[in-house]
TrEMBL record:
Keywords: Cell inner membrane, Cell membrane, Membrane, Sugar transport, Symport, Transmembrane, Transmembrane helix, Transport. The chain crosses the membrane at residues 6-23, 35-51, 71-89, 96-116, 136-157, 178-197, 217-241, 281-301, 313-331, 343-364. GO terms for cellular component: membrane. One of its GO terms (molecular function) is symporter activity. InterPro entries: L-rhamnose-proton_sym_RhaT (IPR004673). It holds the Pfam family RhaT. It comes from the Bacteria. This is L-rhamnose-proton symporter. The keyword Cell inner membrane applies.
Length: 370
């Protein structure tokens, strides 16, 4: 018996993990971005998925070994495409700013990742539109997209208000290029949802092997995240070779300005320092594992959403934005944002929270649990 309301709770926990994973990385010192990202990624995309799938599922190797080559191909393929979305997300933030860039990219990811699967399968017209529960779910999806747009407007208003004095060193935005990159990033990032859908035969096989329904999505994550690892590892490997930063893995000297070098090379004019290896590895492993937990709980939530499991993707995106915004408030990123920006932010968060309730309600009606 599925429980969509419990599914919403799982999605909220996953959203909290996604919004929080970067916090440990803030404590990494004297490592360039490509070094700590790849280190954490090994835990995100390899160690944690296989560890938890081994612990939570039955006959993991047998289930994955019995999957068809076609299933493996599509899961890995969509994982690779999703990896491109994650890498270009950083460029989106560079060109559009954090708030507007996040809203545009995640809004497109939510729209494509939620609506395309039922359209392709035909479920959109055969079971979604004709039923009351399906109509409510669809309304909740559009409410979530509206909430994402409002949060984006709040972020744009904040940036304009904070930059009203033309602060020295502020970087001009490239709106056209930023929108093009945001569209690419949003579409590619939505491919993760397609990879999970392609793994449906693996879900059925692991259930047949006796796996608890809550954990049925964990074996699929092992394959999809292999594709994501391939994309990120190749890019990080290129940066490591270009920036000659491989020595940092074993304590080689690095230039450190006291902060983690995010999406940029090391400052060659800063003072070289050796990295605190144990601390950096521990924090990177922690950040990478927390990142994985977003999808650990996502698959649990999806298993409880009933007939309209595709709505899980919108719940995931909405939860990420809610908790990421709360982190921004806690870290005082909205200080001096202005009344209009804060009003829009409060409205957007209320709409997003409401959308999760509406989607959960629609799924519960469809599952007959209400």
């Amino acid at each position: 018996m599925v429980n969509p309301l419990l599914g919403v709770v799982f999605h909220w926990i996953g959203g909290l993990a996604s919004a929080s994973f970067y916090v440990p990385y803030r404590g990494v010192r004297s490592w360039s971005w490509e070094v700590f990202w790849l280190t954490g990624g090994v835990f995100s995309w390899i160690v944690a998925p296989w560890l938890f799938a081994s612990l939570q599922t039955q006959d993991l190797l047998g289930v994955l070994g019995g999957a068809s080559p076609s299933t493996w191909f599509w899961c890995v393929f969509f994982g690779i495409l999703w990896g491109f979305g994650g890498l270009t997300f950083g460029l989106t933030l560079r060109f559009l700013g954090i708030s507007l860039g996040t809203a545009v990219a995640l809004g497109l990811t939510a729209a494509f990742g939620t609506l395309i699967p039922p359209l392709v399968s035909g479920e959109f017209f055969t079971s979604l539109l004709p039923s009351t529960g399906g109509q409510i779910v669809l309304a909740g999806v559009f409410i979530a997209l509206a909430g994402i747009a409002i949060v984006g407007m709040a972020g744009h208003a904040k940036e304009r208000h904070q930059a009203a004095g033309d602060a020295p060193g502020s970087r001009p935005r490239d709106f056209r290029r930023g929108m093009a990159v945001a569209v690419f990033s949003g579409i590619m990032s939505s491919c993760f949802a397609y990879g999970l859908a392609a793994g449906e035969p693996i879900r059925q096989a692991t259930l047949a092997a006796g796996t608890d329904p809550l954990s049925q999505g964990l074996p699929v994550l092992c394959i999809v995240l292999l594709g994501g690892f391939a994309t990120n590892a190749l890019w990080c490997g290129y940066l490591i070779a270009r920036n000659r930063s491989a020595g940092q893995f074993v304590g080689g000297a690095a230039h450190d300005d006291g902060k983690v070098a995010e999406y940029q090379t090391m400052n060659s004019t800063s003072r070289p320092r050796k990295s605190p290896l144990a601390r950096n590895y521990l924090l990177s492993a922690l950040g990478g594992t927390i990142w994985y937990f977003q999808f650990f709980f996502y698959t649990m939530g999806e298993s409880q959403m009933g007939a309209y499991g595709f709505s899980s993707w919108t719940l995931h995106m909405a939860s990420i934005i809610i908790f990421a915004t709360l982190w921004g408030l806690a870290l005082k990123e909205w200080r001096g944002a202005g009344r209009r920006a804060r009003t829009l932010l409060s409205t957007g968060l209320a709409v997003l929270i409401g959308s999760t309730a509406v989607i959960g309600w629609g799924n519960a009606l469809s599952a007959g649990s209400l």
